[in-house]
Write a structure and sequence with these properties.
Blueprint: E1 5-11, H1 23-29, E2 31-36, H2 37-44, E3 49-51, E4 53-55, E5 64-74, H3 80-90, E6 96-99, E7 110-120, H4 123-137, E8 151-152, H5 170-177, H6 183-193, H7 200-211, H8 221-227, H9 231-238, E9 243-245, H10 248-258, H11 261-264, E10 285-289, E11 295-299, E12 304-306, H12 308-315, H13 321-332, E13 334-336, H14 340-357, H15 360-364, H16 366-371, H17 376-392, E14 403-407, H18 408-414, H19 421-436, E15 441-443, H20 450-460, E16 470-474, H21 480-495, H22 505-512, H23 514-520, E17 526-528, E18 534-536, H24 541-561, E19 563-564, H25 566-576, H26 583-597, E20 599-603, H27 606-611, E21 621-625
Parallel strand pairs: 9-13
Antiparallel strand pairs: 1-2, 1-3, 3-8, 4-5, 5-7, 6-7, 10-11, 11-12, 14-16, 15-16, 17-18, 19-21, 20-21
Helix pairs in contact: 4-5, 6-7, 9-13, 14-17, 18-19, 22-23, 24-26
Bound molecules: zinc ion.
The site of zinc ion (ZN) has 8 residues, from loops.
Amino acid sequence: MNDNNIKCMYFNHRFKEKPNDKVGWVQKSLTQADITIENLADALVNGASFKPGVLVGGNKAKNWTQQQLFGLDFDDGIRIEEAYNKVSSLGITPCFMYTTFSHKEEHHKFRMIFCNDTVITDGNIRDRLQATLMGVIGGIDEVCFNRDRLFFGGKGQVVLHPDYEARINAESIIEKYWNKDYEQYISNAKSKSKKKKSTAAFSKSKDKANTDKEYQPYENFNVKAIKEHDVEYLRKVLAHEPIEFENKNEFWDYIYSELDIAELIDIDNPCSFCCVLHDDHNPSANIFTTQNGVQKYRCCSENLTLNIKQLIEMLGNFKSEYKAIQFIMDIYNLSIKESQWSIEQRENIDLMISNITLNKFKELCPQADKNIKNAKDTFLMMLSIARNNVYSEKFSNNDGEIVFFVTHKRLAECLGMNTNQKRIDKVGKYIKMLVYHDLIRILDDSQIPKELLMKAIKYSGTDKRSGNHVNFYAIPSWVIQQLSTIENNGVRWKEKGYRIAGISFDMFYRSEGFDVAASLYPQYKKKKNEDGEIVNRTTTKTSDERTLKISEVILNCIRGKGYCTEKEVVYILGNKYRYVVTETQIKRSLNEIMDSYGLKKVKANKVLKEQYNIDSEGYPNIIIEDVI
Ligand SMILES: [Zn+2]
């Protein structure tokens, strides 16, 4: 979520002096890290080490795979301010600077770190950019050219000229400043590493760099740009007029029927070309238009047919549809009119997120805040899921709140947990706790827009294992009355002595009755009618009461010895509670109860009899927990 998160090789050991005698140890200890630029800067001024290039399978230049940060080493006497002014005048802004271990006031030694606006995966471009930066700025130690360049930190403790949002754009810097004299940096590095038989990928791109006298774009720059999510470049070459659509449908019609795939991936002959999705030496791809006027990309050797959105998703390796759509909108200059509603909703949620993270919620609802301490991450994650839904689908319930759905399992994944059953169950319990406080609302199917229901069914598929159940939620906004509801619920939670571990339908039901429990577990509000259809529970008061009494007895028995029989229920109700029920009435209530509490009726076979210590004759029907 943080755009300042970058990948690099990183070693967090904080050296106090330059570790000249420990270079080998540092090399071996570097690991690939996702780190914010802020944190990296702070670590470097306190002695940590890093490599801007991401190396996989070894720590040599040939192991280079990608890079976003670029470092320059200044040690020929230029002073910090002078260098900073120089790059600023060139319009190349570093994210930060720091002094090295050997920096002295009379001889400045320092580094400048830049961040490219996209991750560069093409070694050729990486080398060009590094060489251009070194050449145009000047006075830089040539050793910092290498792809495997290691940078030690320093002991300056203060980050110089921090501007963590600053980005450079490789394409425009190379275009503006590339000079063929800078080729020497690349060829020097090459001749040094020549004796090491580097991998094909490395030497190939090197050779290519050497044969191109002038700067040449990639073989297919558009495809590369999609792969690297380089919006700026595509925006420039596609040069699309801005369009604002009234709604999503209009938008999608336009995307599928008006946009030209051949233009997007820069193909001259759409009838036959080498596939851009795989290493294709004989043209096996083409672009065609369906009867409905939708353009499709077809790769015959992989037997793939994709529309423009799917093609972008695959090429760009997008993990979320939302991001891919955003990317399409960005590169083609498209937008959809945002309703006042969606703007408001997003602002509401942003406000909640900042209230939670800035500890304002603690002041507003102290007890609730205390209760949900461990559930906060789950809550924040749900808020951000809801926030994304404001944009991607204008779904709302009758109160105008955003309705969204997610499974416990998916939430656990989003929270970066190992998704074992225990963790997933824990997330489920946190959610019940949040629902209890009315921080989120769990909805039953009748409150859900039909379109969303269909989407959810598609999303969950047929996987009905525990934790995969799709639940629907809404987030009530924190108007003043709502805040007092939340805090009151928090106080009640404490008074009742609820614990996370005990969270279950039963816990809430025993302590606060059916309505409270049912509001937390809306699926229990349903029952099957005589025709086997699922209908809302609309029973008379007496039968409700009877059902409750019966279920209480059943649950008690099961808690005590693991099972219960219908005879027992009649006996216990009559003797203990002086409450007469017929077996028919029990039968009438039983299905409902079993549905509600996850119980089942089975014939006690030999195994079950042993398990529950049943010593009666024959094989009676028993009611037990329906363990999935
Ligand atoms: Zn292909």
